[in-house]
Amino acid sequence: MILRKMKVLIIEDEKWAADKLESMLMTADPGIEIMAKLGSVNESVKWFLQNNADLIFLDIQLSDGISFSIFEQVSVSTPVIFTTAYDQYAIKAFQVNSISYLLKPIRQSDLNESLQKFRNLKSAFSIDFEALILQIQGKQPDYKKRFLIQIGEKIRKVEIAEIAYFYIFAKGVYLRTFQGNNYPVDYSLDKLENLINPDNFFRINRKYMVSIDAISNMTAYSRGRVKLELTPSPVADSETIVSVDRSLSFKKWLNK
After folding, report:
1. What is the pTM for the complete model shown?
2. Which of 19, 49, 74, 243 has the highest CB neighbour count under 10 A?
3. Does 35 or 130 have the greater pLDDT score?
4. Contacts of 62 by beta carbon, 8 Å cutoff, 6+ apart
5. Tens digit of pLDDT for each residue in 145-188?
6. Do 8 and 28 meet the contact criterion of CB atoms below 8 Å apart?
7. Greatest C-alpha distance within the chain
8. Cβ density class 185-218: b for 16+ within 10 Å, e for less
9. Would residue 214 be called left, alpha or beta, if left means φ above 0 and alpha means ψ between -120 and 50 degrees?
10. CA distances in angstroms from 160 to 178, 182, 247, listed in the order given
């Protein structure tokens, strides 16, 4: 069986950097087909009007402006791997939006890992370009401040400051207030991660996203994990343990 070549687009305004990335991609996978190497927003917009690719390597700053403006002019659903020289403050924005990135100067091992991640995902990244632009410009995105909760005919508002944590129970998502009240919400935890200020809430595992103010005690657990005691105590019968893959990020979040 003949496998179709992966079609890759490189958007990078420095020719030597684009050529270097192309060489590294060929080293990682000689079967990759480089569709084009573009250096400007204008050039990229024109290209997308008539072409598409399987994967885009995108530099942040191009010769005629910030690359995110490409996606304000044309609709593109192709997965993106950023190549950037921005510092860790900006990198945080990429992580929050689940975007893969390569920090310049790019290492071959990191490139190989990103390509493997792309293959494993088998779907486009969900990218909030507006939030990325705001954060890179040093502005905070407009995070949710409250939720409207409807139970029967009654409607009440719950301020973010009232919420101790969000959790999954019986296939539904709920919030629990510091007063011990539980209300259903119409968002998945994945969506909530993008709606709520990450300085205040952290997704500790697939079932819980907790407020820093709800953590009353912490205990070192096996394999580098952390077991949390929350206030108020969870009603769901599940342990509030920070998962292995989130433990390092959790400790960094606490230590800001």
Report:
1. 0.52
2. 243
3. 35
4. 11, 13, 39, 40, 41, 44
5. 999 998 888 889 999 999 999 999 988 999 999 999 999 998 88
6. no
7. 63
8. bebebeebbbebebeebbbbbebbbbbeebbeee
9. alpha
10. 11, 14, 24
Q: 213 phi and psi, to 5 degrees?
A: -75, -15
Residues pairing with 59 in the sheet: 83
Token pair for residue 62?
Answer: 């191009």
User: What does DSSP assign to residue 232?
Assistant: S
Which residue carries 């900006």 as its tokens? 90
81 to 59, 86, 88, 95, 125: CA distances (angstroms): 9, 14, 16, 12, 9
d(CA 80, CA 100): 7
CA-CA distances (angstroms) from residue 49 to 38, 45, 73, 247? 14, 6, 10, 43
